[in-house]
Amino acid sequence: QVQLVESGGGSVHAGGSLRLSCAVSGKRFSILDMGWYRQAPGKQREMVATITTDGTTDYADSLKGRFTISRDNTKSTIYLQMNSLKPEDTAVYYCNAPGQFSGYVNLPWGQGTQVTVSL
Description:
119 residues; mainly beta; six-stranded mixed sheet; four-stranded antiparallel sheet; 10 strands; 47% strand
């Protein structure tokens, strides 16, 4: 079975920073495109950022310039550096493969990690 374990969330004031981590096990990580997603209460899950196997990145338009996604294939881990955080960034953050949505891959959703940004 595949496991995705997110960590690094917490509570910060507006303007602060956090670095999230997602460890992947049970799958050959280096062949997977990966991404970060978030879901706030009462809202749909949305894409935050993605990164391909060769390091090409994509970001939600509203987050460009503040968030940075990266990966370390030796550790089977992806990261999300979050700077200049705003209250509207408050959500549970999850990692997964973009292929999950098309059915190309089947990675179970992890527990996510809570990010709370206060004024």
